[in-house]
Amino acid sequence: MRRHVTVAAEIFLCVKHAKLVQEPVRFTPDRKNLGTQSCRWSANKADYFALEEALRLREDGQVETVTCLTAGPDQGVDALVYCLAAGADRVVHIPVPDGTQFNPRAVALLLGRAIQYFGGRLVFTAHESSDGESGMVPAYLANTLGAVFMSNAATIHLSRHGVEIHRKIERGHRQVWKSKLPAVIAFDKNINLPRYVSVAAKISMRQKAIIKLTPEILGVSLADLPRSAMLEHLVPARVRSKKLQAPVSGQSAAQRMLAITKGGVSEKSKRVLQGSPEELAAEAVAHLKEKKLFRQPAQTQTGRATDFAKKKERKMEDGHEG
Length: 322
Fold this sequence. Notes:
This protein is an alpha/beta fold. It has 3 domains: 10-224, 3-Layer(aba) Sandwich (Rossmann fold); 245-270, no CATH class; 277-321, no CATH class. The protein has helices spanning 45-59, 77-86, 104-118, 137-145, 199-205, 253-262, 277-290, 301-321; strands at residues 10-14, 17-21, 39-43, 65-72, 90-95, 122-126, 148-159, 162-168, 174-179, 183-187, 211-212. β7 and β8 (162-168) form a beta hairpin. α3 (104-118) crosses α4 (137-145).
């Protein structure tokens, strides 16, 4: 049985198509960005969990519409196509020239103006992206909207009076926070199991219309966006030599651990035995005796009696000679 729509009729979900680094690492001449061959575009996996929460609330009848939006170059459309294939009702793209460097505050201003354009009051985001990992965009977005900001949400409940979240803290404990709208909720990763989206579904959704909202429509000038802190340049990683040697084949687990903790173990000498079967057997017996691994066979009662008689005979002979 579907529940009635409660505090909000629509959820706005902010998504991102992240730019990840791949080998070989090359920079642009101004060293402020990665070269085209050193980066690849990939969906921000943390957005999947926030999207799943939004879709579940819609399926439960607590909201009517799920709208996803992103600000970035044309590659960001792939993230919106995934949202459509997963079940989002509509998607919005705010086009920004590729290579443009924006700080989190500027990105939040673009997203906030788009949400205000549609009159949104409940916003879902991931806690952080897989490329920037700053976690600042949701906070700046709440400031732009004049909304409450709640982070690290694990579960969410909507009611007539507002929104309630369970926030993850140390050692598995939870905090329960309540607020009225407008609100920006940043979800943690691994809080649910995102639904499977097939390749065929994503291909079919590429034909669906994507709403374009240019910065001019939103009344924003890219030149006037806040640039309080900007990326100055990128520094390549320092090459570090590895001091650990590769383990020698044939070593035991204890020897391998000794090689890691104390810098190595002396390798055992090896000798290949050659010769006839009799010679090889004699060499093997000598080696076992040398290592004190060869056990002498136990004497029988007859053997012990014979040895005793021989000893007694020697003593008698020694006595006669004396």
